[in-house]
Amino acid sequence: AEPVLRLQDLKVHYPVRLGHGFGKSMLRAVDGVSLDIGRGECLGLVGESGCGKSSLAQAVMGLVPVSSGRIALNGREDWGADRLARARMVQMVFQDPFSSLNPRQSIGQSLGGPLKLHGVTNRSEREDRVATMLRKVGLNPDAAGRHPHEFSGGQRQRIAIARALIVEPQLVVCDEPVSALDVSIRAQIINLLLELKDELGVALLMISHDLGVVEHMSDRIAVMYLGRIVEEGDWRKIFTAPAHPYTRTLIASIPDPARPDAGWERLRGEAPSALAPPAGCAFHPRCAQAFGACRAGGVPEFTGLADDHRARCHLLTEGASR
Ligand code: SF4
Ligand code: MG
């Protein structure tokens, strides 16, 4: 079947001013990403802040221009002026539910507006669907008559999720959906997304800097570093047989007393800027296992490790001949 989302060699580059007298440079936010998300599947996209995951999300939503490569939603690439059909196909949940909801609109208006836009002209039908959706996200239908400031952060994120799902999209892009929330309610929101994914068959692109957040809901995980995917695979393989040194450090840095670090090094130093990515393997300045080819060679190509598991690391191809 056609994947819900297919990215082929996607590049999102921005011209950036470097300050007075320094001219301009190209920020290679997304630098050649190919990914598929199947129907009803959850792909966890993980990496540090600045790795390009939000730019990737914005490109999928049509919010930033694509420099090169392809984005196909349901096999369709050219959505042109058909923004309404595109918005019906793919919706987004943002990090901060307070700034993503209009404070002057009631929850009923916030959820009913998109329905009206998408052709549900009958008012009582809209009200019914708003009430049903509010129940699905664990809220009392009375919430429809209230305003965003009357709700807690977790409740507002439930409302934002309801608004994303009410037009029955096939894909929801969630960019750090729990990182602005209290630690104590993060699991509730993650479980809610998981339940809704199973119940509604919607595909999810779950973006987080924290591998622990996507662990329990992802079918597959892709790890991103400085604009590129460095490892991708079935979530169990990522956790039981991580092949890229960066993935291992991300696993080791998940706060979990039940999972000792097992000797892997914590991440060393800051992520370099995507304005001036290191030559060779971009991870080499921070990699405890770097060797000659990592600095002098090219960008590591993907090595297939199993049916649904691949990684970009010279150790996987040249490790034996070191
Ligand atoms: Fe480390 Fe080299 Fe592998 Fe890059 S290619 S992750 S520097 S071992
Ligand atoms: Mg971000």
From TrEMBL:
GO biological process: peptide transport; transmembrane transport
Membrane topology designation: Peripheral membrane protein
Enzyme class label: translocase
All residue ranges annotated as the ABC transporter domain in the record: 5-251
GO cellular component: a single term: plasma membrane
GO molecular function: ATP binding; ATP hydrolysis activity
EC number(s) per entry: 7.4.2.10
Catalytic activity: glutathione(out) + ATP + H2O = glutathione(in) + ADP + phosphate + H(+)
Cited SUPFAM superfamilies: P-loop containing nucleoside triphosphate hydrolases
Keywords: ATP-binding, Cell inner membrane, Cell membrane, Hydrolase, Membrane, Nucleotide-binding, Repeat, Translocase, Transport
InterPro entries attached to this UniProt entry: AAA+_ATPase (IPR003593), ABC_transp_ATP-bind (IPR050319), ABC_transporter-like_ATP-bd (IPR003439), ABC_transporter-like_CS (IPR017871), Oligopep_ABC_C (IPR013563), P-loop_NTPase (IPR027417)
Stored NCBIfam families: oligo_HPY (TIGR01727)
PANTHER family for this protein: GLUTATHIONE IMPORT ATP-BINDING PROTEIN GSIA (PTHR43776:SF15), TRANSPORT ATP-BINDING PROTEIN (PTHR43776)
Protein name: Glutathione import ATP-binding protein GsiA
Source organism of the structure: Paenirhodobacter ferrireducens
